[in-house]
Amino acid sequence: MKTSRIGAACLAFLFSSLPVAGAAILPGLGEISWTIARQDGANVPVSLYDAERKVGYAVFAVAGRYRANQMFPGRYDITIRKTGLEMAPVSVQLAADGKAQADLAPRAVAAPPNYTGGHTCRSVDMQPYDRIYPVGAGRLLVERACIVCYGVNFLPGKRFDRRTWESFVHYMMREPAFRNGGIVKGPSLVDPARIGDADMPLLLDDLAANFGTASKVRAVLQEQEPHFDQDGNVYVTDRGNPAMIVQVDPRTGRSKNFLTPGGGSSPHGLTVDGDGTVWWSGRDNDLAHLDPKTGLTDEYPVTQQGMHGHTPVFSSSGDLWFSMLVGNRLGHWSRATDTVIHYDTPSPRGHPYGLVIDHQDKVWYVEYFTDHVARFDPKDIIWYGVYGTVGKAGNLGRLDPKTGAVTERTLPIQYSNPYDTWPDDQDDVWISSDNYLTKFDPRTGKYTIYPTPERTDQPKIMLTRDGATWFTPRLSRDGARNPQMPGEKTVGRPRQAAGRGAATNGGNERVGD
Fold first, then answer.
1. To the nearest whole percent, how much of the chain has pLDDT over 70?
2. CA 193 to CA 200: how far, in whole Å?
3. CA quadruple 170, 173, 174, 176: dihedral positive or negative?
4. Of 48, 129, 301, 309, which residue is least crowded by CB atoms under 10 Å?
């Protein structure tokens, strides 16, 4: 057993839609509402941020009015996030069991250019896709080898000479694949069939010409904006340095940070057991098991150096299945024997990524590089997102295991990278992507798009039985994101702490670092 300690606080966002009229306010909480002067015939997203607890809310103003309820008492900075509108934050003090009002009066401004992706550039030249990626055989290779994984705005931020690009491409395609605490035996991460020997000079020429040492930092211009329509603790993984598991109490807004053993076992996927303990997978371990009451952690080390656990999911029997992106295997933890065994996957370069368990306890997972969905005799409909789609937008996919039929729909967001998908109890499908949460109604084929309170992507979402949608921003930093963009500078941000572990997050005790 190893001991983790409580560290610095985290940043969490609660995402809610318009409240039901007449909904009762829970004891100790409050409500903020009133009017917005300008709506221009559209619903306007409103952001409310409590800097002390580091909790944000997002609602919509409909027909010139908004209401956010079930809110913690405290001081809120309130603003809007909509292209073409701008306003300074309005501060409001909300008392426990109280109601506060805040009129919002944004002004019309010229719509600034925008770009997709969770990475923020403080100074960036935004250009159309075809200008950053000139049409030709080289672009087809770049789309096939690079964009399919990293999205459209990874390469424009890089500036390397041809020899450096060659080393990167060789690293992704060589065998063995990775060096991370040791060499992983097995095939390369990228199938050489994607890029043949004859293609390699053309690929490297294209990378060096368009993303060479003399190029500028750029981002793909998002020419179109989407149109917007309308108890327990929460745990997330923090893969920073040091790495940690973060516990958020939605009843108080306080959080605790539990360092992973040694601070270097970078956690990725996470799930909560029936007894309130937390399981996660990450770098250089199959699984780790945290007891938040004691702070103690059990580790299940990998049997081969360099292997990584990725996404853990419980079956109905209480066993855990987990994918292994690096290692190209599936893992299974038996509750009865407290042991882990591995299963080789049929694809030599499948690299299992996202994983779900269906109603019959059959395991489904997606393969990172082969464009395959693998299954063990399932019976449920499977929804999936196609991340890094080559083209103008990501896709939402539906697979019917009874017939084998696969259908894909293009998301109505330019250059979107749908990462996670989950159906709710109404059979609507929720999709996470850069800067937006999207709800898809399979019955009508309609999408509802919700902007997130800050520029980021959110790798994971989770739906609760009471209808709430939780998501985890991948990138969250202090300070304004893009000062030149009105929508980026008006949302409240946490104050800069004196050092890691210095912030108390609204009274949360800090024990060591």
1. 78
2. 11
3. positive
4. 301
